[in-house]
Amino acid sequence: APVIELDHVSKRYPNGFMALEKVSLSLFPGEIHALLGENGAGKSTLMNILYGVHEPTEGGVLMHGRQVIHRRPADAIANGIGMVHQHFRLVAPFTVAENLALVARGERQKMFRRQSDIHAFMQRYGMDLDPAAKVKDLPLALQQRVEILKALVNDSRVLLLDEPSTILTPDEIGALYDTLRRISEKGTAVAVVTHNVDEVLAHADRYTILRRGKTNGSGLTASCTPHD
Ligand code: ADP
Ligand code: ADP
């Protein structure tokens, strides 16, 4: 069953512009779902609805089959949704560990004061960053890893990534998807916005194409072994 669904979601911005029209989409645990579409198709709007930045004008968001209302990102985060923004929201002069501790809640906050626990958390996803490194000293691809870890800190069941590959070299894109695969294999539903069809065919399980705010195709890629 899907972790999260959009059910006939429409979004009209205050200026009257219809950015999404009756879009339905299901994210499944263990799958990498690519969201394709040209600039202005509505991809960011869709992600922002899942993440609680915007509320739908019509239609609903369901988690585990139940209607949820995310009025702000804090609501979405509390419901286990993590987001990797296109422009990282890391504190550059702080260390990797400090950045993770900033967003950790409850018991997790204590954990991110212990180097050994941070290492164990990273290794769960095949990452091996130095917790004491300052973010500003890391190359972009590694800063992105920190941003991904930050989105997962509070046990997210849904990981959203907004155009993560635009800043990466082809090798780094391969490595990114190796990481996303490890994350999805832990049962997290992964959704990636991208322009790159080759990347989708090589690495994603499922895709949805948006065109002018409407769904214009969806399906499984050849590499998919459906989990549901
Ligand atoms: P994408 O991420 O696919 O490029 P967006 O979701 O950012 O698309 O935007 C979809 C359309 O909605 C675009 O035409 C954009 O200009 C418009 N749009 C986005 N945000 C707003 C807003 N706050 N008010 C009005 N129009 C918006
Ligand atoms: P990104 O692709 O990183 O989401 P954008 O430049 O598309 O960045 O949008 C940045 C912000 O501007 C978003 O919050 C978006 O909703 C808003 N925005 C985009 N297009 C419009 C528009 N036509 N009118 C008003 N706000 C917009």
UniProtKB/TrEMBL annotation:
It comes from the Bacteria. This is ABC transporter. Residues 4-228 form the ABC transporter domain. Coiled coil: none annotated. Belongs to the ABC transporter superfamily. Drug exporter-2 (TC 3.A.1.117) family.
